[in-house]
Amino acid sequence: MLCFMLKAVFPGSFDPPTLGHLNIIERAASIFDELLVVVAENRLKKYLFSADERIALMGELVKPWQHVSVAVCDSLIVEFMKQRDLRILLRGVRGPTDFDYEFELSIMNKGLDANIETLFMTTDPEYFVLRSSAIKELASFHGDISGMVPPVVAQALRSKY
Ligand code: ADP
């Protein structure tokens, strides 16, 4: 009998993590034997939260699941995955615009490493408008973000602005 351990990687900026990200993580945690949430550290991108801050926030959020862990990646995600012998790359999709971008990204990653399989998980309807960039903007104007991010993130945003 064949017995596979299903391990997936969920990479993103998570600047900061939102309830939309958490929804994908929660649902993926119920499917995969192991889930590694990978916080991207891209030197060309400007983040509000440092990699350490994003890892600490994500670390708090994934505490309920023993088989979900957090790592950082400052290289190509396909290289990161190859080094750890991981093949499933999970991405969340809010709608057709996300899908256009994610589709191209998956083709590019496939070109870099044919072993990598990108799987898409569509957002649950109540989260499809949640976007880290819009939430940061709202938080900077002291708008109410409590329904969009977990309390620990709302607190972190309040202390940034
Ligand atoms: P990136 O800069 O890699 O796009 P993000 O932190 O913006 O990083 O997003 C990480 C992943 O989570 C992406 O696959 C993105 O499409 C997905 N995502 C973001 N917000 C949501 C949401 N509200 N519902 C479902 N997926 C989402």
Describe this structure in words.
The protein has 161 residues and is α/β, with parallel strands linked by helices. The protein has a single domain, classed as Rossmann fold. It is built from six helices and five strands; from the N terminus they run βαβαβαβαβαα. It has helices spanning 19-29, 51-61, 77-83, 96-112, 132-140, 151-160; strands spanning 7-12, 34-40, 68-73, 88-93, 117-122. Strands 3-2-1-4-5 form a five-stranded parallel beta sheet, sandwiched between helices. 27% of the residues are buried. The mean pLDDT is 96.
Neighbour order of strands in the largest sheet: 3-2-1-4-5
**Total beta strand runs:** 5
Question: Roughly how much helix do the residues carry, as a percent range?
Answer: 40-55%
Q: What is the second-level CATH architecture?
A: 3-Layer(aba) Sandwich
- Rounded to an integer in angstroms, the radius of gyration calculated over CA atoms is 16 Å
Please state the overall shape, judged from the principal axes of the Cα atoms: globular
Largest sheet: 5 strands, parallel
Mean pLDDT: 96
Number of separate structural domains = 1
The number of distinct helices, counting runs of at least 4 residues, comes to 6
Query: Structural class of the helix and strand makeup?
Result: alpha/beta
Bound molecules: adenosine-5'-diphosphate
End-to-end distance: 56 Å
Instruction: Quote the beta fraction.
Output: 15-25%
Enumerate the spans where pLDDT stays under 50 for 5 or more consecutive residues: none
Fill in the CATH topology.
Answer: Rossmann fold
User: What is the N-to-C order of secondary-structure elements (H for helix, E for strand)?
Assistant: EHEHEHEHEHH
Question: CATH superfamily, called what?
Answer: HUPs
Q: In the CATH hierarchy, what is the class?
A: Alpha Beta
